[in-house]
Amino acid sequence: MKRAETLKAINFYILTGVCVLWMGCGMGEKDEGWRTSDSVDGAADHLSDAFDESSNNLKKHAKEASNAMHKKKYRTALISLQEIKLSGEVGSAKEGMAVRDSLVNLEEELIYAIENGDKNAQKTYDLLKRVNRN
To answer: Count of CB atoms within 10 A of residue 46's CB?
Structure first.
């Protein structure tokens, strides 16, 4: 009997310790730009933040893409994101992740719009697929 009670106590303390550690995860002050978004608006904000200290050219394209994503002008956003990718000036992983995050969320939003019968979304989605093949 005593052995069973000891095992229960040990399991309780292990479980409590794991819960305390788990609760502490993600409690840091900053994400240092290493984040992903679950919406187009979040990705647009992430993009602007990531390119805040970049060259004027990249900053301009990031701002254009961000504004277009907020306004649901997905073709303009896609073109600006491609300009960033093709510039060869993306200098950090943070910037690269922001572009990737924006493209993923943009594609998801396009799929939703296509499902709702948006013909322009279909054209932009087709363009996205052609760009990704090259």
So the answer is: 23
